[in-house]
Specification:
about 450 residues, alpha+beta, Single alpha-helices involved in coiled-coils or other helix-helix interfaces, Heat Shock Protein 90, five-stranded mixed sheet, 5 strands, about 10% strand
Length: about 450
């Protein structure tokens, strides 16, 4: 009876241990399988993607003087960028190694399309393109090496545990230094099993380390260089200082406009009302005239205040977002404007304000200087950036360095790490491409959002 009770107590205590062992073994096997698959992917990518693309890219660049490379080189280099971006994603997902994308903004030509020559120039002058090319060829041997480390140990271990012991007695069987190549009796069964189990045990940490090493190698070539990061930090520091100065100047302008405009009219309004009160009994007609002037002055002051507020942050921008505000702005222009906006959500208010006033300034320049018959606006959110393109069919010849308006737009965008590129050959068309890094919030979470 006592022995039965003891046995009954022992079984529940032993089952959790065995279950934990099975769970750990299963988890280890899953991780080993994942490492095997990822290692196999790296090997396949090295020989199926990297090597052919490197050869194609080099030949395309060589054939640029003959004309064929003008078309083929961008295709090959952009394909390499696609492979590199996939490796960046795998490095972050598999090994926790983030690799920012260092590429320069893509050029936009008339109607939002860049020609082959502009695309080729953009690719060839970007230092990241040449680092991509170097990574592409170096990844062939290194991808093979790290892929074998990540997946080969697990495969070799599985072969030793589950296959070699049963085939150890078969003559001329086996491969590699571990497994017997003919019958060795009991040793031919136990040896591969033990060695295979040891390889399976170390395959998980070694595989993870191999994938991490490959990710670090990828990061060393595909991440932005220190010089690029230093230049970006310096540029941001300069633009922050310029933004502070511009904000101070804007505050002074608002103060001056209030003092010289609405405040002066309100003072005159108060004086007219006071005089009207004094003249009411003795000269009603004069009092009535003073009250009429006071009413006109109040309307003028209200208009000036509305214009001032609109210059600071248009109410339509707060109520309807960048989409609605730009569409409303386009309706006020004296020429037809094609507007194409695809924004699934709204950016932060400062980003929307910067984008709106940048577009407004460009459109003002179109009306004043371009002699255009039509203009177009394209706004979308792609790749974590707000892309804004404003173009016109005017006379062209716009020079960003010649006018303070363009420089002001650059400063406004640079405060948010944004960029502006102007393409304006003599005779037109003029295309201004602006980008602002930002994330969009769902319109469902913003009660003030709306559809234009």
């Amino acid at each position: 009876m006592g022995e039965g009770t003891h046995a009954g107590r022992g079984t529940p205590e032993e089952e959790p241990v065995s279950e934990r062992f099975v769970d750990r073994l299963g988890g280890h096997a899953r991780r080993a399988f994942v490492n095997f698959v990822r290692g196999l992917i790296q090997i396949v990518m090295a020989f199926v993607a990297n090597l052919p693309l490197f050869i194609l890219a080099v030949l395309s660049i060589v054939f640029i003087p003959l004309g064929a490379g003008v078309v083929l080189a961008p295709v090959a280099l952009l394909a390499i960028r696609g492979v590199a971006n996939q490796q960046r994603a795998w490095a972050a997902e598999w090994s926790g190694v983030p690799i920012p994308v260092p590429y320069r903004p893509e050029p936009i030509g008339p109607n939002g399309k860049a020609g082959p020559f502009r695309t080729l120039k953009w690719l060839l002058i970007d230092p990241a393109t040449w680092r991509d090319l170097l990574w592409t060829i170096l990844n062939v041997p290194l991808g093979l090496f790290f892929g074998i480390l990540a997946g080969g140990l697990a495969l070799y271990g599985v072969e030793g545990v589950f296959v070699a012991p049963f085939l150890a007695q078969v003559a001329d069987y086996g491969w590699g230094p571990f497994w017997p190549q003919s019958d060795y009796g009991l040793l031919g069964v136990i040896g591969p099993f033990v060695l295979g189990g040891a390889l399976l045990a170390v395959s998980v940490p070694v595989g993870a380390a191999a994938l991490k090493a490959h990710a670090l190698f990828t990061q060393s070539l595909l991440a932005p260089t220190r010089n690029a990061l230093a230049e970006r930090v310096q540029r941001l520091s300069e633009t922050r200082s310029e933004t502070v100065d511009a904000s101070a100047a804007e505050l002074r302008r608002i103060e001056r406009d209030l003092h010289d405009g609405a405040q002066a009219r309100l003072v005159a309004l108060s004086m007219n009302i006071g005089l009207a009160e004094e003249m009411m009994k003795h000269d009603p007609e004069t009092a009535q005239r003073l009250l009429a002037e006071a009413r006109d002055a109040s309307g003028t002051a209200l208009t000036e205040l509305r214009d001032l507020v609109r210059g600071i942050h248009p109410p339509v921008l707060a109520e309807r977002g960048l989409d609605g505000a730009v569409r409303a702005l386009a309706l006020t222009l004296p020429l037809p404007v094609d507007v194409h906006i695809d924004l699934p959500g709204r950016a932060d208010a400062p980003v929307e304000s910067a984008g709106y006033f940048a577009v407004a300034e460009i459109l003002a320049n179109v009306v004043k200087h371009s002699a255009a018959r039509r203009a177009w606006i394209q706004i979308e959110h792609t790749g974590g950036r707000l892309l804004m393109i404003v173009g016109d069919d005017g006379v062209g010849g716009a020079d960003p360095a010649a006018g303070s308006g363009m420089r002001g737009i650059e400063r406004r965008l640079a405060a948010f790490d944004g960029t502006m590129a102007v393409t304006s050959p003599p005779g037109g068309p003029t295309v201004v491409t602006m980008e602002l890094p930002c994330a969009l919030s769902s319109p469902k979470t913003l009660p003030s959002s709306g559809t234009a």
